[in-house]
């Protein structure tokens, strides 16, 4: 079986220090959390950024500052900025980090309720616009799907040339408004993907580790991190993103699955090798 790629979603746009004091906002905190995840075995950092007071932003300069600071500490890690940003941001606001030409970025494949009155809007034209932009800039999209219909949308837009092969999906499961994190739904989504695609699974809250185990067994890949879940186990806050990654590494080892380093992750995902 392919080695396991672990992505750490270290920050997100919604989770706060009130939920877990280790949630990073400042440049130094971002570096600390990225490094803890990398040292534990993550090869991809899914990155949202905040201002020092915790406000989410897609500001290009803030992304640049934080990416440079992370890369100074961990040179070979794959940085995957979010183009989802936070609910309510405009398309062009969300796209700012793509101007830095990262290797990967997320591409959200549909609109969903996001709890309360919040709606995370991704119209068909938004997805086409983001897809085209990523092709122009040579960025590999991680296709974030929060429900089965979003896989179908990605496949339609792939046929029309807005998304290129090889496709890589992120099954985000358990968002309030999206598909549940139950195993039955994981099997449904997983078997709805093209055979030549790769996927990672991001289980929200209590679904994080059961779905990680399902993907480990199935040959998929795993995303963990404070964006999705702040607990190491029931009622026990994780001290760092690294602790969440360490748990996945332990689970993978028990199941005989080896962990991919960033070079191996690039090979699996069809990314260019690092030149220096
Ligand atoms: N913060 C959510 C509204 C992404 O990173 O692409 C969107 C999100 C998805 O987190
Ligand atoms: Zn995200």
Descriptive terms for the model:
binds zinc ion; 14 strands; 276 residues; alpha/beta; binds (5S)-5-amino-3-OXO-hexanoic acid; 19% strand
What features would you describe in this structure?
This protein has 276 residues and is α/β, with parallel strands linked by helices. Helix content is 36%, strand content 19%. The chain is built from nine helices and 14 strands. The strands form four sheets. The chain has an eight-stranded parallel β-sheet, sandwiched between helices. Strands 3-4 form a two-stranded antiparallel sheet. β9 (140-145), α5 and β10 (168-173) form a beta-alpha-beta unit. It is globular. Zinc ion is lined by residues 9, 12, 46, 48, 82, 84, 227.
The description of the largest β-sheet is:
8 strands, parallel
Strand order, largest beta sheet: 5-2-1-12-11-10-9-6
Please tell me the total number of domains.
1
Average pLDDT works out at 98
Q: How many angstroms separate the termini?
A: 29 Å
State the helical fraction. Answer: 25-40%
Shape: globular
Query: What are the low-pLDDT stretches, counting only 5+ consecutive residues below 50?
Result: none
How many β-strand runs?
14
CATH architecture identity: Alpha-Beta Barrel
CATH class term: Alpha Beta
- Category from helices, strands and their pairing: alpha/beta
What ligands can be seen in this structure? Answer: (5S)-5-amino-3-OXO-hexanoic acid, zinc ion
Strand-residue fraction? 15-25%
Question: Helix count, per DSSP?
Answer: 9
Indicate the CATH topology: TIM Barrel
Q: What is the radius of gyration?
A: 17 Å
- CATH homologous superfamily (4th level) name: Aldolase class I
Write down the secondary-structure element order.
EHEEEHEHEEEHEHEHEHEEEHH
């Amino acid at each position: 079986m392919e080695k396991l790629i672990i992505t750490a979603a270290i920050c997100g746009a919604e989770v706060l220090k009130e939920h877990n004091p280790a949630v990073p906002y400042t440049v130094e905190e971002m570096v600390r959390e990225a490094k803890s995840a990398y040292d534990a075995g993550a090869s991809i950092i899914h990155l949202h950024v905040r201002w020092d007071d915790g406000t989410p932003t897609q500001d290009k300069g803030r992304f640049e500052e934080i990416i440079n600071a992370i890369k100074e500490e961990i040179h070979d890690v794959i940085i995957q900025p979010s183009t989802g940003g936070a609910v309510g941001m405009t398309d062009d606001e969300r796209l700012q980090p793509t101007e830095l030409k990262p290797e990967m970025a997320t591409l959200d494949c549909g609109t969903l309720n996001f709890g309360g009155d919040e709606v995370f809007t991704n119209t068909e034209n938004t997805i086409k616009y983001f897809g085209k932009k990523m092709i122009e800039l040579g960025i590999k999209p991680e296709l974030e799907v929060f429900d089965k219909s979003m896989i179908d949308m990605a496949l339609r837009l792939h046929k029309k040339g807005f998304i290129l092969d090889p496709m890589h999906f992120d099954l985000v499961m358990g968002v309030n408004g999206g598909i549940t994190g139950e195993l039955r739904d994981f099997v449904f989504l997983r078997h709805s993907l093209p055979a030549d695609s790769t996927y990672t699974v991001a289980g929200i809250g209590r679904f994080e580790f059961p779905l990680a185990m399902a993907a480990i067994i199935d040959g998929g890949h795993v995303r963990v991190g404070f964006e999705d879940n702040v607990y190491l186990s029931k009622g026990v806050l994780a001290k760092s993103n690294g602790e969440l990654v360490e748990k996945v590494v332990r689970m993978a080892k028990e199941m005989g699955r080896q962990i991919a380093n960033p070079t191996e992750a690039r090979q699996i995902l069809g990314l260019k090798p690092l030149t220096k």
